[in-house]
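Hey team,

Sharing the SEC14-like protein 1 run so nobody has to redo it. Sequence (714 residues) first:
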Amino acid sequence: MVQKYQSPVRVYKHPFELIMAAYERRFPTCPLIPMFVDSDTVNEFKSEDGAIHVIERRCKLDIDAPRLLKKIAGVDYVYFVQKNSLNSRERTLHIEAHNETFSNRVIINEHCCYTVHPENEDWTCFEQSASLDIKSFFGFESTVEKIAMKQYTSNIKKGKEIIEYYLRQLEEEGITFVPRWTPPSIAPSSEASSSCKKQAASLAVVVPDAAQAEGLGSEALSSPSGPPEPTAGTPDDKLDADYIKRYLGDLTPLQESCLIRLRQWLQETHKGKIPKDEHILRFLRARDFNIDKAREILCQSLTWRKQHQVDYILETWRPPQVLQDYYAGGWHHHDKDGRPLYVLRLGQMDTKGLVRALGEEALLRYVLSINEEGLRRCEENTEVFGRPISSWTCLVDLEGLNMRHLWRPGVKALLRIIEVVEANYPETLGRLLILRAPRVFPVLWTLVSPFIDDNTRRKFLIYAGNDYQGPGGLLDYIDKEIIPDFLSGECMCEVPEGGLVPKSLYRTAEELENEDLRLWTETIYQSASVFKGAPHEILIQIVDASSVITWDFDVCKGDIVFNIYHSKRSPQPPKKDSLGAHSITSPGGNNVQLIDRVWQLGRDYSMVESPLICREGESVQGSHVTRWPGFYILQWRFHSMPACAATNLPRVDDVLASLQVSSHKCKVMYYTEVIGSEDFRGSMTSLESSHSGFSQLSAATTSSSQSQSSSMIS
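Structure output:
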């Protein structure tokens, strides 16, 4: 398996030339990099004007590996080749390194780059990326991989110290400024000019070697440029190291790399819908920074949020009065770590009465609103306390818990809530304090614990009776001044006391079923199933030419082809596929076909957009300016893999892809709207004017530019 690394942007608050001068001092050897033994210049090139300096070196490294492994491999040192290209005119340095030793068994590549900060020409940015692919190594592949990754990550951090060390050394020598390169025709013909050229040349030499001394191959060569001190501003919407430390916390280099790579993938595939970095990080932590697993659950959660408009729940949904009066929970200051504190008096809550009066879905929606409020409070506390706060603490008081709370429908509702929250709000619970647990609690715990993630379960602290008042109790986590009064504290808690819900507020099973259905169908998005031979089609009638049809859809399963057709006459009334062949029974499996089989393309209807192939997981937004009035048909059709042109046999990739789509079924979730041309703010916008359900978790919504996953405009 190929291991990859991508660094955040390291920003130095020093000019490019001064950083190069510090970098140069690390050669030919550096006492701060014990593994970097020596280096020899293999090739060197300098342009006549001195602006370009390219140098290639062969670096000798003493890798910290077990003696037995070195003996088996038959080597004492490992050699890397590094090519450094300094462009003093553009003020850039590019460093490329690869291993020479065992190149047929192990492939190591690294690229580093020093550039000028785009917003401040007196600052310098540094980035690096690397890959490690171990083909074979005498049966020690896993050991070699661990050794390489361990040394690489440790030397990435060491690079920061090295640059800072030589910057201080330069300052002690009185060197705080290095002049920029100037063309020979402009440069003054003095000794100063000569010294500048020498400096420029030496800078180029210095830079290259340093990079390899911290790199993958020369673990210590290419990481020398860690961030020396806090800085503001991230070039080109990239993450810089100081931003990560301030808002996301202390991450290891590999964790930073996972965050950046997953973020880049989302930018490429989810146009205009990139979640905030804190949210991406939560899903990575929930899957131990396994990018593939985190990506899967994150995409599922983003689709779920969009379908049910969870992003707007705080603004558009008002809890029923019954919840406001009888739901014994609410926010209450913060704990000692600055986390928002949520208090739930579960023992005083009539769960049966709430379920009978409101239904399971209303309770679930209320819990979702609590979680959304928690996310908002975490952001606020991050600003207030000046450190990353990404989770909250929950205090659950079980005094009064009895067998009444084990009512089966109530437990079922609780399990459903746990399931949804675990899937869509991972790593948001920092600590759960369960107080005054009664004898019946083990029964409830046995029922719900299997549905709780192991990482979450480790955050539970359970106290029986008044144990919470002793050592290791509540005072270890919450300041005395804000302990609620009902727990013998000094702070008045405004959380409702709960109590029995009047039976006059109970509703019939039929009323609750209709209410539940209404709650979760209140969405601007619709779902449809697409089958091989049975596309899904919707009809849009246009009265005024130059209207704009906008669309926004996600491909939830399989690959589809999106088409737009125009007809002067209306199709027959929509016929839902009876599903004798496809057996669609769920409400989310809607399949409507409008184009009659006897219709001919070019005679009865015409294509007004080029077909767009959309892959599973893609999010597509676009628009079409209508030229004529009439009837427009938007069609989602099953995408069949074409067979190889040279043979009738299907390609291996086609067979594997077809196996991924069970029963030739695809699923899309879509929203469309017709807007007058005067109201449409430019073609291919982010659909803000059509109330697109783009996630509010997005840190910055970008326009859905024409791309592989966005539609073409007519």
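The first helix runs from residue 16 to 24.

Ping me if you want the raw files.
A.
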